[in-house]
C-alpha cells in the first residue's frame, strides 16, 4: 500500500480537491524528475584533461573502454561520439542495404532510424504486453526471406528476453544487435549484457545512468568485428594518412572519457539506489487499482533508467494525459516515453505496413515517474499521496 497514511492530513476543505481544480497541492515544491549534476570529482577529472592539452580520444577513453568491457562481460569496447553513432557503427558491418531487419515498434527512434540510414528495411515487431520489450513470438511471425538481423532495445533499463532472441537468431542465422542505451550495468541470468549478441550499443547522453554529456560505445566479442568498428570510427585509418576503407569521424574525446570514468566509480551504488527506489514505487503503484508497475523479463536484473508505470483507462474517468497533468499540479512531474509508437512516426510513413497493437496501446497508457539516485523518503511520501489523491478523484 502507498506510504500515505503516515502523512499529516490537511484540515482545509481543499485538501481532497485536486490542485489542478484549485485545491492545495500535496507539495508546493516538485519532486526532482532526474538528477544529472556533476560532482566536484567529475569536474576535477575534466580539468585534469583540459590542463594536459590531450583533448582527443586517448588514455581516458581507453580506460573507460577497458572498465566497461570488464563490467559488461564483453571482449571489446569502443567509445564513440554518441549512442546514435554507436548504432551506425554496429549496423554497418552486420547487415547490407536492402536487408530486412526486425526492429521494435516500441523504442526510441534511433534504434530504427539508423537501420534506415544503413539502407535496411525495418520490419516492425510488437511489444510484449507484460514487459514492454520486443515480443520474440511476434518477431518470429514477421520473419521474411530477406531477414538477416534483429535489433532489440533493452528498454527503460530492463534487458529483453535474450534467450528468446538468441534462439530465434540461431535458428534463422540472424545477426543480433542490442541497443543498451538505457541499460548500463544490467545483467541477464547473472551475466553482463555485453556477453550476448553480435554487438551491444550504449549511450552516455546527459540524462543516462552513466552520462558524459555526449558519448557512446559499442561492445562485441568478435576480434574481426571489433577491428571493423574501429576502422569505421576513425576514417578507416590503419596508420597515419593510410586509410584501408571509407569511415567516419565518430571518436569520443578524453574530456568526456574522464567524466565517464569518474562517474563510473559511483555507478554501482547509484544503480542500487535506483533499484531500491523501484521497489518503493512498486509498493505505491501496487496499491492503486488501475495502475500497473513495470514487469521485469525473467532472468533479467534491470537498472531502472526509467520507472514506467501503465494506466488502465477503463478504471478512471480521465485519460492518461489528464491523469499525469493532475499529478504534475500536485508536485509530481512525469514524462511519457513514448507518446507515439515508431510506426506512427512521419519519418517512417512510407515503410509502414501495419501498426502493432500493443505498441499503439502503450503510447496511450505509459508514464514515467521521477527516477534517480537522490530520491528521498519525503519524495516517496509526496508521490504516494499525490497518486492516491489523483486516482481517487478520477475513479470510475
**Which structural class do you get from the secondary structure elements?**
alpha/beta
Measured between the Cα atoms of the first and last residue, the distance is 20 Å
Q: How much of the residues is beta strand, in percent?
A: 5-15%
| Shape category | globular
> What is the average per-residue confidence, as pLDDT, rounded to a whole number?
96
Rg, rounded, reads 22 Å
Write out the CATH superfamily name of the largest domain: Type I PLP-dependent aspartate aminotransferase-like (Major domain)
Tally of discrete structural domains: 2
What characterizes the major β-sheet? 7 strands, mixed
Write down the CATH class of the largest domain. Alpha Beta
Give helix and strand order, one letter per element, not per position: HHEHEHEHEHEEEEEHEEHEEEHHEH
Strand element count:
15
* CATH architectural type of the largest domain: 3-Layer(aba) Sandwich
Total DSSP helices: 11
What is the topology, as strand order, of the major beta sheet? 1-9-8-5-4-2-3
Percent of residues in helices: 25-40%
CATH topology of the largest domain: Aspartate Aminotransferase, domain 2
